[in-house]
Amino acid sequence: MGNGIGRLPCHAIPTVSKPTAMSRPPSPPFVIAVDGAAASGKGTLASRLASHFTLPYLDTGLLYRAVGQSVRDPGDAAAAAAAARRLDPSQLNDPALTTAAAGEAASRAAVHPEVRSALLDLQRRFAARPGGAVLDGRDIGTVIAPGASAKLYVDAALETRAERRWKQALARGEAVTLHALIEDLRRRDARDAGRADAPMMRAQDAVLLDTTELTIEAAFDEALRIVEQARSRWLRSQGRD
Fold first, then answer.
1. Contact, 209 vs 35, CB < 8 A?
2. What is the pLDDT of residues 194-223, one digit of tens each?
3. Fewer beta carbons below 10 Å: N end or C end of the chain?
4. How far apart are CA 72 and CA 137, in angstroms?
5. What CA–CA distance (Å, rounded) separates 22 from 166?
6. SS3 133
7. % helix, strand, coil for the chain, step of 5
């Protein structure tokens, strides 16, 4: 599964106003948190869910890819953190961010707590949009939006994920072997899950969606079913069922 449609820019994020003492607190927004490993299909599913529910969508992985691409050495915490603080949303439209090299750079930059801290507020403000939002990443349901109304954790077998990335790379004309991508994803999984700050992990209340044997359409149908159930619970909690 590749990156889907419906990606919206993360600039111009509104500030959520605080209710006055006499006003009724606003209903919490309907937020869909989609987490999972690289090439699991979470980006495709998240963007399609955003399109289906007409919600703004933020692929948080692009933030880290942009940071990793903008420094000489993503392993340099100070340089990566400085790049994160000056991140321009226009950088997220760079086609180079979809390459395997950008993904590796993102994984290396994301291990730095300083980088994650610099990008934390931007992501949380996006999730707090009054109308709701869809975000995908590694720590959306655990750190960025732990109170999200719908949470999915998307996964697939390592070999299946590598084959998806291999086909995407071939379509872009990149010369890469399937074996190399398997090893690359294995390293990224270990790095993402093993970092001390906001590791990749399934939130306790997230629904697991294994896409190993599923087509794009079948995976989306299952994701939609999960989110529709969560949305029904959210509506009832707001007295709007």
1. no
2. 998 899 999 999 999 999 999 999 999 999
3. C
4. 24
5. 57
6. strand
7. 50, 10, 40
Residue 227 structure tokens: 């989110």
Spatial distance between the Cα atoms of 82 and 75, rounded to a whole number of angstroms: 13
Instruction: Read off the tokens for 26.
Output: 């606003």
User: What is the C-alpha to C-alpha distance for residues 155 and 61, in angstroms, rounded to an integer?
Assistant: 16
Q: Are the C-beta atoms of 188 and 104 separated by less than 8 Å?
A: yes
Round to whole Å and give the CA distance between 201 and 155.
11
Task: Give the global pTM.
Answer: 0.85
Measuring CA to CA, which residue among 114, 150, 118 is closest to residue 134?
A: 150
Residues near 169 by beta carbon (within 8 Å), at least 6 away in sequence: 100, 176, 181
Can you tell me the distance from the alpha carbon of 193 to that of 231, in angstroms, rounded to the nearest whole number? 29
**Is the dihedral angle over the CA atoms 46, 51, 56, 58 positive or is it negative?**
positive
Report CA Rg, the chain. Answer: 18
Tell me the helices (H) and strands (E) count for the chain, helix number first: 8, 5
**Closest to 115 measured CA to CA, from 22, 198, 201:** 198
Per-residue pLDDT for 140 more than 80? Answer: yes
Residue 208 backbone phi and psi in degrees, to 5: -80, 130
